[in-house]
Every structure is written in structure tokens, then in C-alpha cells.
Amino acid sequence: MSEQTRTGRTAVVIPAAGRGVRLGPGAPKALRALNGTPMLIHAVRAMAASRAVSLVVVVAPPDGAPEVKNLLDAHALPERTDYLVVPGGDTRQESVRLGLEALPENIGTVLVHDAARPLVPVDTVDAVIAAVFDGAPAVVPALPLADTVKEVEPREKGEPEPVVATPERARLRAVQTPQGFDRGTLVRAHETVAVSGEGATDDAGMVERLGAPVVVVPGHEEAFKVTRPLDLLLAEAVLARRRANDGF
Ligand SMILES: Nc1ccn([C@@H]2O[C@H](COP(=O)(O)OP(=O)(O)OP(=O)(O)O)[C@@H](O)[C@H]2O)c(=O)n1
Ligand SMILES: C[C@](O)(CO)[C@H](O)COP(=O)(O)O
């Protein structure tokens, strides 16, 4: 563990600047309601539920930072949790980089968590943080796959795609967030790793490109990403089950 990780505090960067194109027309995805509360607020509360987290940096839609700041001001967080809002960029990678730039000096451990994963349980957050505190420079929560995966030769939409390979399913994991990092390692990855096109699809992948080790801890089925309309129904159902179980 670096000196900065050992002595520093823990912050979470929450990229929330995406439009949510796959969810369909409407407000930016992070601002859409789940059980009457914006998805972003669920995500922020899920991270602030960890006693280790002292700062949350929300990366807002580029033209929506004041609105997001007002939203956070209006929703209570634990007293121990500070928050900042910064405007995001064109890709998730760019938004995370802008969030990292806003971190104060005293932060040694950084988690990156999608606003689009509003229901991650605190035990998963704590497991990621514990693995970083134990010395791993990069940690990802992940689950085994239910489906068999094929690698294909991509074709135009609608055309049959030739299969190239079938990776051994037992060795594959579906990766979630929050992903946890020693701050220096993540900053170095964002400063040095160039990914063309839509950018890196996760932060741990950038650390892998640095050649630094990345480890996996168990993820959770409720940490799924709200991507398509069906995911909204699932999220509402999970919240209804929580309310029925424990009055959440
Ligand atoms: N320019 C971007 C793009 C994405 N994100 C964030 O990255 C997370 C994961 O991205 P995804 O689920 O793909 O969200 P969107 O980009 O909004 O979805 P879509 O691709 O359907 O538009 C989300 O919390 C999203 O707000 C971001 O901060 N900045
Ligand atoms: C970071 C991530 O959630 C890990 O599964 C995922 O890669 C984000 O992808 P998206 O296409 O930006 O939603």
C-alpha cells in the first residue's frame, strides 16, 4: 500500500454525466426517478452508507452542475460525508478524469461508482474498500456469468455475425462498480493510458493497461446497471422488496 493510501481518506467519484440513450428519451439517466427519488441520490446514498467514505464527487451532465448541486443540497447525507459537484465530459472516461482532478490532497483511496448502479449494497462497497486497504492497487466487484459468451466478427446491424471463439465461461466475470483504487495508480492510468473511440469502458481496464495488478472481489446481483427500460422495472422491484423486508 502506498503512503498516500495508508494515511489518506476515501473518496468516491460518481460519473453521472451520461444521457442514457439506451434508456430512451427523457431527462439525463442519473436524474430519472426510482420510487420518486432521482437515481443519482440513490447512488450517492449507497456510497455514503459506508463509514469509510468521507467525500463524494458527483460528475454532472456538462450543463447540469447547478441543478445537481441543488438536488444534493435538498437530500440529506450522513454528517460525515462531504460532497462536490463538477461538470462532466463527452465520455465516461473523460468524466471520471474530471472528477479525479477535483479531489483534495488528503484523499488516498478512490472509488469510482456509476450513478447508473443505484442499488449497490453497502457490504459490496465495504468489501472493495477493504481490499484496497489490504494493499491491492485496483479492485473490482464482479459476478460469474449466467450466459455463455461468444466472440464474434462484428457486421452491419442485422447481418449474421461469424463466431470467432467461445471463451471458457468459468474464467469470465461480469464487472460492476464501485471499483476501488490506490489514488496514485488510478491518476497515473488516467494520465497515461490513451483509449480511442468511446474511451475505456471501465477504470480497472486502464490500470491493467498500466501493467498494475487488478483483483476481483464478489459483486452483488443488486449492483446491476440501469441501462435499458427493463432495468428500471427491476430496480423498482428491488426497492419494493427492500421496503417490504425492512421498511427501507
Ligand atoms: N459522458 C459520460 C457518459 C457516461 N457517464 C456515466 O457513466 C456511467 C455508466 O455509463 P452508462 O450506463 O453507459 O450511461 P450513459 O452513457 O448515460 O448510457 P447510454 O450509453 O445508454 O447513453 C453512468 O452513470 C453515466 O452517467 C458519464 O459520467 N459521462
Ligand atoms: C464500468 C462498468 O459499469 C463496468 O461494468 C461499465 O463498463 C460501464 O459501461 P457503460 O457502457 O459506460 O455503461
From TrEMBL:
Annotated CDD domains: CDP-ME_synthetase
Gene Ontology molecular function, alphabetical: 2-C-methyl-D-erythritol 4-phosphate cytidylyltransferase activity
E.C. number: 2.7.7.60
Record's keyword terms, sorted: Isoprene biosynthesis, Nucleotidyltransferase, Transferase
A Pfam cross-reference name: IspD
InterPro entries: IspD, IspD/TarI, IspD/TarI_cytidylyltransf_bact, ISPD_synthase_CS, Nucleotide-diphossugar_trans
GO BP annotations listed: isopentenyl diphosphate biosynthetic process, methylerythritol 4-phosphate pathway
Swiss-Prot/TrEMBL site (Transition state stabilizer) positions: R22, K29
Source taxon at top rank: Bacteria
Enzyme class: transferase
General function of this protein: Catalyzes the formation of 4-diphosphocytidyl-2-C-methyl-D-erythritol from CTP and 2-C-methyl-D-erythritol 4-phosphate (MEP).
Family of this protein: Belongs to the IspD/TarI cytidylyltransferase family. IspD subfamily.
Protein name: 2-C-methyl-D-erythritol 4-phosphate cytidylyltransferase
Organism of provenance: Streptomyces marianii
Gene that encodes it: ispD
